[in-house]
Structures are given as structure tokens and as C-alpha cells.
Amino acid sequence: MGFVIFAHFTEKHSVGEKDLAVDLQKAGIWKRASALLLDVILLSILAVGFALLVSKITKFDSHFDKLTSYYSTYEEQYGVAFGITADEFDALPLDEQNRFNEASDALTSNKAVQKEFISIVNLSKVITSISILLAFIVLEIIVPLTFKNGMTVGKKIFALGVMTKEGVRLPAFLLVARTILGKFTIETMVPAFIIINLMFSQAGMLEVIILFAIPVIQLGIMIGTRTNAAIHDLVAGTVVIDFPSQRIFESQQELIKFQEERAREKAQAQSY
Fold this sequence. Notes:
This protein is mostly helical. The chain has helices spanning 2-22, 29-57, 60-78, 86-90, 94-109, 111-147, 153-157, 172-199, 205-224, 231-236, 252-270; strands spanning 160-164, 238-242.
């Protein structure tokens, strides 16, 4: 009788330990924020380095110098300065305002100036896209594939990991989808393109609304989901976890096998 009671306790204790091991161990908000901050700093540094390289390859500086030269030519010809604010323009005498408008009209009607301006805008978008994409590939794909368990440099330092919502190790294709579709495209490049358009006075009100809506939506998703998911986690079906306390299964088959064993142990425990 004593043996039966002891066996019953052992089975229940064993099941309890396994339940605890596979329960979701969410990463703490402050640890996630700290890891994110470090990753953003590294990403920015690497992106700037790639941007310098890509701008040299695309000869961005030569286009910028040509456009600057056109501006200087018209400024000297009309005796105006284009780099003034609206308040400074309003403070000018009427004849100087008229001269400024004439110079501006002449500048913008010059097809060579238009061509260089369009080149600058397009190259800005190309350089931004390529440099950030390369930085993401290195820090958010290559590094996690090296460290395993979805760990970036920041997550490695703060002992965080990434797994599927089922508790399985993150496969490479999901890591790529999480990075390229979620982090790069939606969370980074959409706002980046809008900011570039704002810099060149080409953004409309809808784009401004989208720019402010993305972080609001991101925050709402993180607060409203049980796993505190970000947009990229919803895209890939992933969750950020506290790595030391979380059991991660190597494959879906291993997870299924574990679930079958646990169900069998529970059935045996209940039979006593």
C-alpha cells in the first residue's frame, strides 16, 4: 500500500515538473527593452556603414553636388537664398519676395534640376533600403542562426530567446519571415520611406497618419496579446521567452512525442 501511494506521488510530481518546464516563460519587459536598445544601436551603426558603401557605389555625392551647384547658380543669378524659413520669407521686402519666387520658378522648371532632384530622392530610398536590409540580414538572421534559438546580440546578452508559439525551436524560414516581412518591411521601411518623403516635401496627410499609427498599433498589440507580441511576432507566429527557464523542443515531432508521453503518464497516475 505504501508503495502504491509513493508511486502515485512520484507520477504526479513528475507530471508537474514537466508541465512547469513547458509553460510559457515570457521575457520580462525591461529585459526585452534593454535587448532591443542594444540591437537597435548595433543595427544603426552597421546600417550607416553599409549606407556609406552603397552611396559610394551609386555615386550619390556626385548627384548631390550637381543639385547643389544648380541651387548656387540660381541664388547668385537672382541674388536670393533658398535655404530660408517661411517666417524669414515673410519678413523680406516685397521686391525680394518676388525675386525669390522668380528664382524658385526658374529652378523648378529646369529639367536638368528636376532630373537631379528625382535622382536624389530615388537614391536616398535605394541606399536606405539596401543598407538597412543588409544590416538586418547580418544582425537579425546570420547572428541568430549562429547563436541558435533566435538570439540576437542583445537577446544573447540578456538571456532571451525566440521560439514558435507551440514551443518549438525557430526554423530558418520563420526567422527570415519574422525579420524581412515584420521587422524590415512593416516596422522599419514603411516609416523610413515616409520620413524620406517628408524630407523632400512629397508626403501627404495619409502617410503622416500611417507614420504615427504604426508605433501606436505596435504598442497596442504588445499590451493586448498574452505573449506581448510585436508585429513581427504575429507575422511569424513567434514568442520571445526567458531562455534559461524555458524548454524549447527541437522539432514538432519531439513536441508531439512529449505530449503523448505526458498524456500517458497522466492516465497512469489517475488509475491509482
